[in-house]
Design brief:
Blueprint lengths: L1 E2 L8 H26 L24 H14 L14 H11 L2 H15 L1 E8 L5 E6 L4 E5 L7 E9 L5 E6 L3 E7 L3 E8 L7 E5 L12 H22 L2 E5 L5 H10 L15 E5 L5 H19 L9
Parallel strand pairs: 1-4
Antiparallel strand pairs: 2-3, 2-9, 4-5, 5-6, 6-7, 7-8, 10-11
Helix pairs in contact: 2-4, 5-7
């Protein structure tokens, strides 16, 4: 959490410090969560195996399944707002506000962001038609600065983004103004204006008190699951392409080509040594049972810890 005493103003140095802390949070945590939801797992980017070894890279996207399933339960039926009778004009305005901002899709996206990152933000603004609008902001693109009281009152909301030239821009909103800045090698203020709201025009929503993503506790298990199932696929390829071992008989190049194409092996019963040749496949120990037990255990733990049931399970 980013905190600033109620008696202190947000200086350029302090804002730069918070932005650096936010960038560190993105690098160390948030980007991993975003990548996991998009099926960008560690198994896909590990070092390549030698060309003669199978190298399957299978990524099972449990994070997306967990997030989408949970949000399907929560927002399968859109949020409805009840208004007391006799509130003149308010029901009509609320209906217009919801339609103007496509509020059902907005709520679904905000809920998804909270499930992925453990928190998300709703930003209010006035558009060019003087209409009040709302949009969702990912923790990858913004953060809230609170005071240091037990109430943790919002003091500033910071939004950061890059333009098409990769120049960093941003806004800082307090309870009165929204100020615009850019970072072009150095920090520069560009503009400021009244935002028209009573208080900081942003709301932080949290998934839980710790602000943890819904699949974050099982992320290492998902990496282990992807590794285990990829190695199982490698074993299938290995046994399908196992080397043929022929002992006690000389095979020239035409013989080996004939065997490979026709898959037929035929030797005379008597050999010069008086023994039959030995023909077998060169294979490594089979770990299928161990692999299956590991995959089943990981799969069970992932769903148990993330508290998302298999909706196909009659239980």
């Amino acid at each position: 959490m980013y905190r600033l005493s109620a008696e202190k103003e947000l200086t350029d140095e302090k804002l730069s410090y918070f932005i650096n802390q936010h960038n560190a949070d993105i690098s160390n945590r948030l980007r991993k969560l975003a990548d996991a939801y998009k099926t960008k797992f560690q198994i896909l980017y590990g070092p390549e195996k030698p060309p003669w070894k199978p190298d399957n890279r299978i990524a099972v996207n449990f994070p997306k399944y967990i997030v989408d399933t949970m949000n399907g339960f929560i927002l399968g039926n859109p949020v409805k707002i009840s208004i007391d009778e006799g509130a003149s004009g308010i029901p009509e305005y609320v209906e217009m506000f919801e339609q103007y901002n496509n509020i059902d899709d907005h709520n679904a996206e905000l809920s998804k962001i909270c499930s992925i990152f453990g928190r998300g933000y709703e930003l209010l603004y006035v558009d060019e038609y003087s209409q009040i609008c709302t949009t969702h902001v990912s923790p990858m693109e913004g953060f809230m600065i609170f005071d240091d009281s037990v109430l943790e009152r919002p003091r500033y909301f910071v939004r950061i983004y890059k333009d098409e030239d990769e120049i960093i821009h941003g806004t800082v909103s307090d309870d009165t103004l929204v100020r615009y800045f850019s970072i072009k090698g150095k920090f520069e203020w560009e503009d400021e204006r009244l935002h028209g709201f009573d208080g900081v025009p942003a709301i932080e929503y949290v998934e839980n008190e710790e602000k943890m993503g819904i699949f974050e506790p099982v992320l290492t298990m998902i990496d282990a699951y992807n590794k285990a199932i990829s190695e199982k696929a490698n074993d299938v390829d290995y046994f399908a392409d196992a080397y043929l071992k022929v002992l006690g008989a000389y095979l020239d190049e035409d013989d080996t080509k004939h065997m490979r194409d026709n898959r037929i092996i035929n030797f005379d019963e008597t050999m010069a040594s008086g023994t039959l040749p030995e023909v077998d496949f060169l294979s490594k120990p089979n770990g299928d049972t161990t692999q299956e037990n590991l995959i089943n255990r990981l799969e069970k733990l992932i769903f148990q810890i993330s508290m998302v049931a298999n909706i196909n399970d009659e239980n």
